[in-house]
Design brief:
The structure is a single chain. Strand 5 and strand 6 form a beta hairpin. With 172 residues, the chain is of the alpha+beta class. The protein has two domains: 71 residues, no CATH class; 73 residues, OB fold (Dihydrolipoamide Acetyltransferase, E2P), CATH 2.40.50.
Amino acid sequence: MLCEASHNKGKIERFFLTVRKRFLPLLTDEDLSSLEKLNHHFFSWLEKDYHRKVHSSLNMTPLDKYMSQISQVKTYDNPEKLKMLFLKRAQRKVRHDGTISVDSNLYQVPPVYIGKKVKIRFDPETYEHIYLYENGSCIAEAEPVIMVDNAHAKRGNHLSFAAMSKGGKEDV
């Protein structure tokens, strides 16, 4: 997998080298006057130049190469499902109180995971949803811990150490 990642990194770096050599010199002050104009000019260059010139290592155009492998391209009808594929991935150890920390915020997870490491996915822009994953499938969503509510939560089976120290037994 490491070799595959470094191989793909080289392809990406080569693309940006091509952009620097073939696209950037074409830019004018007018092209740089707005992001909309820059994007329009870039996508026009991509379509007319990059996708249509024979690539030296492919011996064909990138567009022809793509079309030759179109049957292997996966498509998704549901944009939400696609969005889930691009979430940031991390691992956390669930604390003894059933929480994990993400970006200095606490999230409650099912108690069955206490003391275990869990894989999580989330959008680092919003942190709105923290999903727990196991074997590549979403198994739960962590809930934000609201400190004010947590401080006032009623808990059953209170232990009274004062009563125990007086020789009394506390029902547990």
